[in-house]
């Protein structure tokens, strides 16, 4: 089974973390988001992943020079310009010569979904496309997908206003598709699978969906990028992972609670780091306090500084000693 993995977006909601690094190459508790996505696919028999690349393709190619990730063979399809989701799928599938049923995943979704159940429903219904659905609190950030009792999709409404969403079951970003879907995607321009291709398939009655309440998160915002990591440290996803890297240096008087501290990062005397992510090589000064903060590689947080409520500090940035920031980005406006 082959899978197209969409990893070509700009990751704008995660800036400044994604100023230079594509979001799927950001670490999620010491392992790249991409590697976690591909490891999930490999469990269900995917043996080749076609990375649909746009922004900074070199970051992926450099990270996996052997052309393999989590035991899965990698192929790279680099778009000449951003083609949006359907355009990207078409481009990658044609590059790879796909002519059989294939899988597509949004590369920023982490889940415990059993892909076999989606393949089974797809085959049982003789569908042209079958998509995984998950229930969410606020569907307005997602593709909203009402279905009939047998799983036929009745509508696909991408990011509707909250009070206009007909259901809270949303597109969870994993699809099984027939190659005929590729013929529906016009060449040479941006095409959104959510806004154009899926609605056309709904009109033809060929799109099905499977709702499932397994663990699911789209890690593409600061809040969810943090949440997915705190979930891995806790008990929501099997055996808890270890947040503090063995090569991190934590002063014995510092407190690190439910947090990720990357390789070579330093946490100074009497600093307090709670529910936060500190990436490799960053430096947290003495008596600084972090609560729900994200600090990128090699950033420097001055002594006594306070970072709260989803502050995001970009790679190599400096926060002055004693500075207090809430829900801010550094550099500002990034
Ligand atoms: N190659 C390529 N080219 N990839 C792209 C492009 C493009 O032009 N645009 C976006 N992508 C990739 C992103 O990198 C990401 O992995 C995936 O496509 C989805 O894009 P997002 O920007 O993360 O979309 P979203 O989160 O707002 O919405 C999508 O995901 C939701 C579930 O997480 C939609 O599919 C929604 O319908 C869905 O509910
Ligand atoms: Mg997303």
Low-confidence stretches: none
End-to-end distance, in Å? 39 Å
Class derived from helix and strand content: alpha/beta
With strands numbered from the N-terminus, the spatial order across the biggest sheet is 5-6-4-1-7-12-9-13
CATH class of the largest domain: Alpha Beta
Main pleated-sheet profile: 8 strands, mixed
Helix content: 10-25%
Q: What is the CATH superfamily classification of the largest domain?
A: Spore Coat Polysaccharide Biosynthesis Protein SpsA, Chain A
- Separate helix tally: 7
Mean pLDDT: 97
CATH architecture group name of the largest domain: Alpha-Beta Complex
β-strand number: 27
Bound molecules: guanosine-5'-diphosphate-alpha-D-mannose, magnesium ion
Strand composition percent: 25-35%
The count of domains is: 2
Outline: elongated
Q: Could you please say which CATH topology of the largest domain applies here?
A: Spore Coat Polysaccharide Biosynthesis Protein SpsA, Chain A
Radius of gyration, in Å, reads: 21 Å
InterPro entries: GMPPB_C, Mannose-1P_guanyltransferase, NTP_transferase_dom, Nucleotide-diphossugar_trans
Pfam families: GMPPB_C, NTP_transferase
Domain Nucleotidyl transferase: 3-232
Family: Belongs to the transferase hexapeptide repeat family.
């Amino acid at each position: 089974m082959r899978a197209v993995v969409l990893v070509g977006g700009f990751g704008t909601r995660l800036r400044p973390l994604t100023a230079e690094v594509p979001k799927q190459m950001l670490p999620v508790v010491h392992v790249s988001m991409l590697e976690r996505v591909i490891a999930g696919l490999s469990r269900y028999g995917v043996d080749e992943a076609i990375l649909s690349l746009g922004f900074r393709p070199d970051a992926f190619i450099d990270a996996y020079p052997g052309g393999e990730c989590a035991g899965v063979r990698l192929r790279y399809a680099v778009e000449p310009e951003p083609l949006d989701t359907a355009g990207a799928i078409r481009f990658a599938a044609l590059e790879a010569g796909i002519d059989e049923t294939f899988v597509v995943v949004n590369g920023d979704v982490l889940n415990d979904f059993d892909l076999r159940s989606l393949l089974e429903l797809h085959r049982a219904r003789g569908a042209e496309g079958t998509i995984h659905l998950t229930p969410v609190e606020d569907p307005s950030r997602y593709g909203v997908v009402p279905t009939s009792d047998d799983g036929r999709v009745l509508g696909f409404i991408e990011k509707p206003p909250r009070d206009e969403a007909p259901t809270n079951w949303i597109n969870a970003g994993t699809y099984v598709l027939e190659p005929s879907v590729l013929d529906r995607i016009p060449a040479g321009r941006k095409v959104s699978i959510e806004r154009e291709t899926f609605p056309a398939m709904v009109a033809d009655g060929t799109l099905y969906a499977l709702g499932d309440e397994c663990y699911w998160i789209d890690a593409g915002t600061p809040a969810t990028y943090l949440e997915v990591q705190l979930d891995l440290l806790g008990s929501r996803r099997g055996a808890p992972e270890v947040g503090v890297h063995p090569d991190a240096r934590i002063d014995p008087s510092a407190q690190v609670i439910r947090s990720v501290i990357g390789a070579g990062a330093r946490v100074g005397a009497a600093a307090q780091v709670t529910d936060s992510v500190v990436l490799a090589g960053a430096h947290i000064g003495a008596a600084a306090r972090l609560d729900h903060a994200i600090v990128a590689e090699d950033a420097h947080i001055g002594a006594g500084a306070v970072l709260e409520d989803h502050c995001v500090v970009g790679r190599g940035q400096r926060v002055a000693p004693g500075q207090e920031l809430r829900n801010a980005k550094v550099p500002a406006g990034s």
